[in-house]
Amino acid sequence: MSDLTAGIFALGGALVGGVATFAGTAWELHQQRRTARTEMAKAAVDLVMTEFSEIQKAIRLRTGSYEWPAEDTRHTWPSAFWRSETLTTQKKMKRFNLMQDRRQRIEIAMLRVPDARLRLRIQLDIGMIYTLPTETSASASHRRDTLICDDALDCLGAYQRGDPVPEPDPAVQAAFQSWKKYSGVTGPDRL
Question: What angle do CA 53, 56, 61 make, to 5 degrees?
């Protein structure tokens, strides 16, 4: 009888040990996947921050204060950046295509970020930069687009630090309202 009892306890111990090992392995895999997702999201945010920094550099390269006629403002990249009078058509299109590539990299990278509010905010910021009509002067468009880039960078930095998405600057909120009216987008009233 004691051999039978010892065998039952040994079998029970083996089962408990097997279940514990399985549970530990499953937990470790879960943690590894979670860590991988977190690292993937951080890498995506780093990429998006780099892309916004490059867009900001491109915005800073704009020169002149040419007044754009109202009928010439509805373009995919409406700013003076790619319509500069000093550029050939080929160079304008090259700039335009480079900026479109940046936008696409941002949109794809943001798909890896689990924070829905951050994804929406970045989507709205990039949409405003690329589709808002030019202001009455290139310098006004420059200021507005720079503020929108700053807003995106502030949001991405807050995410990296683990902080909540910050409230937008009033000028960015005003640009958002103009963008909603201009583009006919329905959705949130505030960024």
Answer: 130
- Note if the pTM is more than 0.85: no
The contacts of residue 180 (CB under 8 Å, 6+ apart) are 186, 187
Tell me if 52 sits within 8 A of 155, measured CB to CB.
Answer: no
> H helices of the chain, where?
2-60, 89-110, 116-131, 138-161, 170-183
DSSP state of 86: T
pLDDT: is 1 or 149 the higher one? 149
pLDDT in tens, 21-60: 888 888 888 888 888 888 999 999 999 999 999 888 877 7
Asked whether the predicted pLDDT for residue 9 surpasses 60, the reply is yes
Task: State both tokens at 150.
Answer: 């700053």
